[in-house]
Each structure stands twice: as C-alpha cells, then as structure tokens.
Amino acid sequence: MKKMKKVIFVTNNIRAGGAERVCVNLANELSQLYDLTIVSGESQIHDFYELKPEVERKSLAFDYMSKSILGKVVELYNRIGRLSRFIKSERPDVVVSFGLDMNVLSRLATLVNNNVKVICCEHNNHNALANGIKVKIRNFVYRKADLLTALTEYDKRYYLSKNVNCIVVNNPVVSLGVSCSLPRNKFLFVGRLEEQKNIPGLLDVIEKIIEVEKESKFSIVGDGSKRQFLLEQIELRGLSNSVNYLGNQKEIGKLYASHRCLMLVSHYEGLPMVLIEAQDAGLPQVSYDCPTGPAEIISDESTGYLIEHYDIDGFVKKVIKLNNDDNLAKKYSKESKIAAEEYSIDRVVKKWVEIIDGVTE
Known about the structure:
Distance between the termini: 18 Å
CATH class of the largest domain: Alpha Beta
Order of helices and strands: EHEEHEHEHEHEEHEHEHEHEHEHHH
Structural class: alpha/beta
Largest sheet: 7 strands, parallel
Number of helices: 13
Number of strands: 13
CATH topology of the largest domain: Rossmann fold
Radius of gyration: 21 Å
Strand order of the largest sheet: 3-2-1-4-5-6-7
C-alpha cells in the first residue's frame, strides 16, 4: 500500500472566522487523502470549529502577552525555533500555512529544511498591509515559498509582478443544507467585529433603513475587539429594540435561512466567506464594492447588489427595494444557489490535491 503524504497545516488559531473556517474545511476533507496535522500557535482550548478524527491537532503554545519590543523579538525567535523543531520532528512532505504571520513564520522555520515544500495561503488583499517595510518583507518571503495561493486575480497579478509564484484558489464552502424563507424586514450581518468590517458604517446603514422601514430587525453575528463599541453604540443610538447581537454562532445555516438579505459594508476584504455561505443558503447579498472579493462573488442584480463603496444612500435604497419585492428576492435567492456551486468543497479540494501532488513530485 502506497504511503500517504504527510501534510502540515500551520495557522494562528482556529477560532471563529472565515480564514479559520477555510483551514478546517480543507483539513477535514484532505485528511481522507493525506496524513494531515493542524498545528497552531494558540492553544486548541480556544478552537471553535470541529475537526474530523483523522485530523491530528497540535499546538505550539506561543506567548501572546509580550508587549515590549525586546519581548516581541525574543518571542519571534522562540516561535521560529519551536515551529522549526516541530516540522523537523514530523518530517512532512509539504507545509501549508494560513495568513500573513504564519506564512512568514513557516517559511523562516523551513529554511534549514530544504526538502520540505512550503505553500503560503494569503487570505486578504495585498493592499491591506500598508507598512512599507512589512510589504517588502512579505514579498521577499513569498518569493521564497514554493507557491502562494491568492483569492483574486487582482492579487495574483500583483504578486506575479513581484516575481512570486502565485495562483488563485477559491475559498471552499461546505453546503449548509438550508433554504431561505426570505422573511421581510429581517436583515443579517456576519463577520469579525474589527476595524476592517466598518462597524460604524454598518450602524449608519441600519439607522437609515429604520427611518424608512420602522419594523426592521437586524441580527449581528460575530465577535472581536469592537464588540464593546458595538454594544455601546447600539444603546447610544437607541437601536436596542431593532438590533439583536448574537455573538459567535455555530448553527449559522439557520440564521442565513431566516433573513431577507446579508449586508456587508467592509473597508476591504479578501474573498469573504460570509458572501459565499449566503449564496449557498440562497440568501441575497447587498455589499459595498470594496477591494477585494464582493465583486468576484456577487453578480450585481442577479444574486444581490454591489454598491459603490461608502454610498450609504445607495446601499439603503437597494436593501429596501429587495425587502419590498418578494419576486425579486426569490429570483436572487435562486441565482445565489447556482452561483455557490463555483465554490463547492469538492471542486476546491480537487484543486488542492492537484497543488499538493504537484509541488511534491
């Protein structure tokens, strides 16, 4: 019997989040074909998503409390050493890293293990990193990787121009197995509560929708550093009777199925999983056309609406239009289901098998 190839996924954590969900979904499927381990910097006690028994789970117990410059430098050195020793002991055929920090760390940790192939997965658009020095370090490290996967053609063109071996691979969606009832006046936001997601802008949109549709109800799903800000703003703006904050939710399919549309108002994205999942559930999407992702996923006036970035009035107008037209909502729901097939887990896993087998042959 042919020996299974050894694959290690390196990630910061598998808390609630789109990139983390992608990592887990891929690991669960690829573990049927490879000897697969997920190793994280953070302890697995914080894991949000479930892994199949075939996936081995390890943690390197990084120190996330260091605040001084010297402490951070020492911790970086320790992290490289721990990951390098782990990889050496596991003797994988390929290391697949997720996210900028772990991409850089994984490549540095494998410099002395020349036989190990390294695939870096970028889950944000390249403009999200603004610091010039960090950009140069990122691009240098990515040139040293055997392969970089990006989420959009926009990012692929950029990295190719920097002499990085880069291809586009979609985020996969595991079908939620639900269909939307499309109730009027019920709207959904799903995402990490961080600066990127433009929480003040979301609340501005909510206020304006309520001015027109006073019976509107909004569900906000997610967690993050802006949670307290969100809760305070809900109270200060008098939105407590209209906005229901739900935190992180594992049964996300039921929420997609019980709303009229998904709203996204981010400053920037990579390839947002929430839009792909919404399409799988048949939930129409209304999103700003931010860089990057929404334009790659949403077919304007087919699966939902793409709104000019930061055009609040335009956003509100389309949400209300969708809310008041049942036939339109049903049409967008049907088209969304069809569009989601592009991101099916089977299709994306097949691509990953080609990638892993390709770099190890």
